[in-house]
Amino acid sequence: MKASDSPAFPHVVVLGAGFGGLTFAQRLPSSLARVTVVDRQNHHLFQPLLYQVATAGLAAPDIAQPIRSILRRKPNLNVLMAEVQAIDLAARKVILDRGELGYDYLILSLGGRTGYFGHPDWERHAPGLKSLDDALRIRRTVLLAFERAETETDPARRIQLMTIVVVGGGPTGVELAGTFAELAHTVLRRDFEHIDPTRAHVILIEAGSRVLAAFPPELSASAQRQLARLGVDVRTGTLVKDIRDGEVELSTGTVRVANVIWAAGVEAHPLTRTLGLETDRAGRLKVAPDLSLPGHPEVFALGDLVSLVDRKGVTVPGIAPAAMQMGAHAANLLVREIRAGDRNRPRAAFTYWDKGNMATIGRSAAVAQIGRLQFSGWPAWAAWLSVHLIFLVGFRNKLSVFLQWLYSYLTYKRGARIITGLDERDWPVPPRA
Amino acid sequence: MKASDSPAFPHVVVLGAGFGGLTFAQRLPSSLARVTVVDRQNHHLFQPLLYQVATAGLAAPDIAQPIRSILRRKPNLNVLMAEVQAIDLAARKVILDRGELGYDYLILSLGGRTGYFGHPDWERHAPGLKSLDDALRIRRTVLLAFERAETETDPARRIQLMTIVVVGGGPTGVELAGTFAELAHTVLRRDFEHIDPTRAHVILIEAGSRVLAAFPPELSASAQRQLARLGVDVRTGTLVKDIRDGEVELSTGTVRVANVIWAAGVEAHPLTRTLGLETDRAGRLKVAPDLSLPGHPEVFALGDLVSLVDRKGVTVPGIAPAAMQMGAHAANLLVREIRAGDRNRPRAAFTYWDKGNMATIGRSAAVAQIGRLQFSGWPAWAAWLSVHLIFLVGFRNKLSVFLQWLYSYLTYKRGARIITGLDERDWPVPPRA
After folding, report:
1. Residues A53-75: what's their mean pLDDT?
2. Is B151 in contact with A80 (Cβ distance < 8 A)?
3. Best residue in A396, A426, A432 to probe B by mutation, most B CBs within 10 Å?
4. Is B238:B205 a contact under the CB 8 Å cutoff?
5. Do the chains contact at A413 and B422, CB–CB below 8 Å?
6. Distance between CA atoms of B136 and B146, rounded to whole angstroms?
7. Which H/E stretch holds residue A155?
8. Are B57 and B136 in contact (CB under 8 A)?
9. Which of B223, B185, B218, B217 is nearest to B204 (CA)?
10. Rounded to whole angstroms, how far apart are CA atoms B321 and B185?
11. Among residues B31, B53, B33, B34, which one has the least CA distance to residue B43?
């Protein structure tokens, strides 16, 4: 008897243990199905705080938890650290770098990648921020550039080394630009002899007319004022034409810069384009209202893989709460379906519940929108801190992050100003010219 | 006028901000000299806890502090992140990867490297543990091997992946073997479906007749019993003949193993052999009783660079307290000499003050010797924890490490079970065969 002939105790394969996949795996009762969770990393990553690892505020283990640890109490659940190479929807199987997995139900939650709008060569000069390795690389690049500036005698090169360009005025770009400005202007201020880090130039590039376009215009304006107060040079309506070794060509001219960070685009995992299904320009799958793939009710897609306007007409955003809600929705559907023993039951459509939107900018600087309520500055910052502490996975991580924040707040220092990976050879050191 | 003609306010160059160099820089008053501290890393590393980063107990930033932060309050002191390429004793200058530095006094505190007794090709298969990058690499290799074992179907390969060989029965080897055994037998125990981590095989290889040869024989015997209780297979009187991809050839036979860690030898920084002075087999410099180089009273060598029998006939060991005492000794000599304005004053000889010796093995397992007092087990472990917390640099690090230890003690978990650097390409993944 094939596994798929056994609807009473099906095999569910979950690809990716981000917010969507992990929520699904936690919500599906072990008594109803055998579950295999596959991820290429050994850890679940709390992405909303990733920029703080890149900006030397937090250590990598503070925002990551082993997937095995999180799910250890679930019987009938198996975690595999493996890379997905292909998905065969017709044969209902997944091909991994080691072996294959047949499934009765498949949860696609592979997440997003940094997208360069058709310029993959820019990645070399402008790393994105999606993984812990990305964050550690950005931290290394920027901290090294300041060290290089300290011994640089050519004034033009020194300015180049002390310039940081962040491309993209969404929440990640705003967080990175604000925090790097703060790092240079307060944390590093007294630590150098030959350079003055307060003269570091942090530029935030946004193609649209305002930063944080997903927020109401008043909050965008507030964020822009708060960024300016931290010393960020915000340039809206500015396009990136080219990124080369040591310089960025903008629609308004060329900037010589040693540190470029790309926060402008997210694409769905490239496997979405291999399924023979309709995707949008960013590779996101058009799914049915219940989140299943058209023609494949046994396959659900979640999170950053999905392009969806929900039944209330809301475009579901690519953020952690939306992915978690999708994971819970798919789990609830499967619970009813498996319990009923009927695969042809009508399924409820997914509805996104907008709990609000927040972005942090720096010390006591943030914007927040909850329902019709809008606020910014210190109250928004306090709300942001609380919400992120509450949702961070694991008691150890909550405590550690809370203490690091308290430490940084009281001392104006950063606990993770450590350069590692100097001997790794796959990434160039900041260019000197 | 050359700088060296100005004995009233000399330029002192310190190469290396380990325990010796840092202590020297902290002790020398800023009013007496201009100081330049050079290090290839941006951080001072608390080496005694490095094995806990390798074994997933601590995060890298917990045991490291930016050198600039530690020394920020010292006027007339400059920190350079640079690599030393050559030392010209005759011309009194140091050649760095960027530029040169003339000096009036030179402090050589470049520290040690892992030594392979004439087999540099073994490094590829058996990394040593001297830097944060080494520690993160060992953590990645071992955690990945367990993940590979989980999907491995060949029983022989599975055993190979779950075997860890630690070469060298000194304190580092004992700490690594004990902690890896604990990691496998308690932490990972419930996390896998297909493998039983309690069957992991941790082998500690020692060429001599007992582990911890620097301790009294009774404590070596106690350490060996405590290691056996944790499940470590201790093999004394065993020589390593060869290390190849996936196996270690011992004098007693060949072991198939995916994880080999080299804790058997430390050599002085290779620059010591370029000075035209006498060194021992490990490249350590024979220094005068005052720690200066023979014929060069303006140059002092500290810590792991030095081979010295002090005036009481004690061979000074290559441990942190000895390096710190040497740094303080050199600083005190210079203070007197600069204040007196007389370079020909007779100098005091260095005397090592043996404060005792400790090694930890695992949870509630350690050995300690303080004067004639010898103890082991829980009291030695508590003493070890306290001493290391007290000497760890920085309040943030003390608090963070204390909380991580408390967490691990209470939960039997490890807070840093995170694999990073998967995409770095300079290190091979564990061999499959």
Report:
1. 93
2. yes
3. A396
4. yes
5. no
6. 16
7. helix A155-161
8. no
9. B223
10. 33
11. B53
Q: Which residues contact A166 (CB under 8 A, 6 or more apart)?
A: A173, A176, A177, A180, A202, A203, A204, A205, A260, A261, A263
Question: What is the three-class DSSP state of B31?
Answer: coil
> How far apart are alpha carbons A400 and A408 in whole angstroms?
12
Structural contact between residues A368 and A361, judged by C-beta atoms closer than 8 angstroms? no
Q: How close, in Å, is residue B94 to chain A by CA atoms?
A: 15
> In tens digits, what is the pLDDT along chain B, a chain of 433 residues?
344 445 579 999 999 999 999 999 999 999 999 999 999 999 999 999 999 999 999 999 999 999 999 998 899 999 999 999 999 999 999 999 988 999 999 999 999 999 999 899 999 999 999 999 999 999 999 999 999 999 899 999 999 999 999 999 999 999 999 999 999 998 888 899 899 999 999 999 999 999 999 999 999 999 999 999 999 999 999 999 999 999 999 999 999 999 999 999 899 999 999 999 999 999 999 999 999 999 999 999 999 999 999 988 999 999 999 999 999 999 999 999 999 988 888 999 999 999 889 999 999 999 999 988 999 999 999 999 999 998 888 888 888 888 888 888 888 888 888 888 876 533 333 333 2
Task: Write out the two tokens for B165.
Answer: 């060989």
User: Do the Cβ atoms of A418 and B136 come within 8 Å?
Assistant: no
> Which A residues in the span 129-158 are in contact with B, Cβ-Cβ below 8 Å?
131-133, 136, 143-144, 147, 150-151
Q: Please state, in angstroms and rounded to a whole number, the distance separating the CA atoms of residues B43 and B60.
A: 11
Tokens standing for residue B366: 């350690």
* Helices A19-27, A320-340: crossing angle, 10 deg rounding: 30
Residues 380-409 on A with a CB inside 8 Å of B are: 396, 399-400, 403-404, 407
Give the start-end residues of each E strand in A148-256.
163-167, 201-205, 232-235, 240-244, 247-250, 253-256
Of A40, A403, A420, the CB nearest to B136: A420
Give per-residue pLDDT as tens, B263-286.
998 999 999 999 999 999 999 999
Rounded to two decimals, the pTM is 0.92
Residue A188: Cβ within 10 Å count: 24
Give the Å distances, CA to CA, from A143 to A433, B64, B119, B292. Answer: 17, 15, 35, 35
* B400, two tokens: 């963070």
Å from B402 to nearest chain A CA? Answer: 11
What count of other Cβ atoms lies within 10 Å of the Cβ of residue A75?
Answer: 9
Averaged pLDDT score across all residues of chain A: 91
Residues in chain A within 8 Å Cβ distance of B143: 42
Per annotation, catalytic residue among B147, B150, B175, B247 = B175
Q: What percent of chain B has pLDDT over 90?
A: 79
Question: How close are the terminal C-alpha atoms of chain B, in Å?
Answer: 66
What is the strand order of the sheet A201-205 is part of?
A232-235, A201-205, A163-167, A259-262
Please give the structure tokens belonging to residue A377. 């500055």
A-B Cβ pairs (cutoff 8 Å, strict):
142
- Non-local (6+) Cβ contacts of B116 within 8 A are B122, B123, B126, B262, B265
Backbone angles phi, psi at B36, to 5 degrees: -120, 120
Here the ipTM equals: 0.89
Judging contacts by C-beta atoms under 8 Å, the chain A residues touching residue B191 are: 66, 68-69, 72, 79
- The reply to whether residue B413 touches residue A407, judged by beta carbons under 8 angstroms, is no
Radius of gyration of chain B (CA): 23
B247 is catalytic: no
Which residue in A has a C-alpha nearest to residue B150's C-alpha? Answer: A80
B402, B386 in Cβ contact below 8 A?
Answer: no
Amino acid identity of residue A185, one-letter, is H
pLDDT single digits (tens) A320-366: 999 999 999 999 999 999 999 888 889 999 999 998 899 999 999 99
- Sequence-distant (6+) residues with CB within 8 A of A152 are A158, A161, A432
